[in-house]
Design goal:
The protein has about 260 residues and is mainly α. The chain has two domains: about 5-125, Serine Threonine Protein Phosphatase 5, Tetratricopeptide repeat (Alpha Horseshoe); about 150-240. The chain has helices at about 5-10, 30-45, 50-65, 65-80, 85-95, 100-120, 150-190, 195-240; strands at about 140-145, 245-250, 250-255. It is rod-shaped and about 130 Å long. Residues about 5-25, about 125-145, about 240-250 and about 255-260 have low confidence and may be disordered.
Length: about 260
């Protein structure tokens, strides 16, 4: 049994409604005007005109009080956004001892309007999770922010790690370059003092090895630094939150995005 079904059944079976004291009414005891008002309220409710539906349900209830009309009032209040009055109507309906299925539906709606009351007390719209929206602006515009992109954070972290690794590689390249220069100087000094190739061969080979390593490690470190900085900047840009403005309109809402380049 859906909520709409409950409303329809209530409107069509108002002749069997009960009074405040719970005494049954016969079909003849239910005014024709009350039945017409209940039917009108149902039609307005289905059309989304909850304000006028409330008026019709209230007038019908005054003429022929019934638990079903309490439920209908709760539905109209809830869908209108009036959580406090909806909560009151659902509680009054539950106090009449409805069927288990109808009680389950009413309890579910009561729980939803209960959350609505609590969230509105904190300035949060009841149809959004806590923390998802900022307080609405005076003109009705609501500003929201999308969740952070985890891929952007990953890019930033990888960029930082790559740049650090590149910096370490450049430091190692500088060390090898210094060692190669030092070996070259040692060879020149040895030749100046009359040393032979056999005497300086090991030093010269060490210098050549350090020079090769300096070139290889230096190029790799430079590429790593450039790549790391690029990844970090890309991640930083992607991680930047894009403001979204939701502006209520008559037929829905307008969404506008503000991009930063």
């Amino acid at each position: 049994m859906t909520a709409r079904t409950v409303i329809a059944v209530v409107a069509l079976t108002l002749a069997a409604a009960t009074a405040h004291a719970g005494e049954p009414r016969s079909p003849d005891e239910v005014p024709q005007r009350a039945r017409a008002l209940a039917e009108r309220g149902r039609a307005l409710h289905d059309a989304g005109d909850y304000g006028n539906a409330l008026v019709a349900f209230k007038e019908a209830y005054v003429m022929a009080p019934s638990p079903g009309l309490l439920f209908n009032l709760g539905q109209a209040y809830r869908l209108q956004g009036n959580c406090d009055d909806a909560s009151l109507m659902y509680r009054r309906y539950l106090n009449t001892g409805p069927s288990p299925e109808a009680r389950r539906i009413a309890l579910a709606h009561l729980a939803s309007v209960g959350r609505c009351v609590q969230q509105r007390g904190l300035g949060i719209r009841d149809d959004q999770p806590v923390g998802a929206l900022q307080p609405p602006a005076p003109d009705g515009t609501v500003f929201a922010e999308p969740p952070r992109d985890t891929r952007a954070t990953l890019k930033k972290n990888l960029g930082v790690g790559l740049a650090i690794s590149g910096g370490i590689a450049l430091s190692a390249a500088a060390y090898f370059a210094f060692d190669a220069r030092s070996a070259s100087s040692s060879v020149e000094d040895a030749y100046a003092t009359g040393a032979t190739w056999r005497d300086v061969e090991a030093i010269d080979q060490r210098g050549e090895r350090s020079a090769r390593l300096a070139r290889i490690v230096g190029i790799s470190g430079g590429v790593a630094v450039v790549g790391g900085v690029t990844l970090y900047l890309l991640g930083k840009r992607a991680e930047r939150r894009v403001p979204i403005a939701l502006v209520p309109t008559r037929h829905g809402a307008e969404v506008s995005l503000a991009w930063t380049f």
